[in-house]
Amino acid sequence: QVQLVESGGGLVQPGGSLRLSCAASGIIFSIYDMGWYRQVPGKQRELVAAITGGGNTNYADSVKGRFIISRDNAKKTVYLQIDSLKPEDTAVYYCNARRGSWPRGDYWGQGTQVTVSS
User: Fold this and answer.
1) Do residues 95 and 34 make contact, with C-beta atoms less than 8 angstroms apart?
2) Per-residue pLDDT tens over the stretch 87-108
């Protein structure tokens, strides 16, 4: 059974920082591409940052320079360091594990709420 469990969300003031974590189980973590998405009510879920199994990263333009995605394959965990938070970063943040070739898979966590407000 595959599980992705996010943690680290919360209420933070503008300009603050958070570190989100996503712990995976039930998959060969090192061969999966991992991503962080976010969603606000009434809008589509959007990709924030992604990291391949080999460590290559990709970021949405809106978060470049403020967000850093990283992974620890030994701990089967992917992280999202979020700095210089803005009110528009408020959303539910979801972890995703994806692999397009065998063993294929596309898995989601339950999400963690990030609220940026003074």
Assistant:
1) yes
2) 999 999 999 999 988 888 999 9
Phi, psi dihedral angles at 8 (to 5 degrees) = 105, -5
Q: How far apart are CA 76 and CA 71, in angstroms?
A: 8
Residue 44 has, within 13 A of its CA and on its CB side, a CA count of 2
Q: How far, CA to CA in Å, does 6 sit from each of 2, 3, 97, 101, 107? A: 13, 10, 12, 25, 13
Q: How far is CA 96 from CA 11, 48, 86, 103, 114, in A?
A: 22, 11, 23, 15, 17
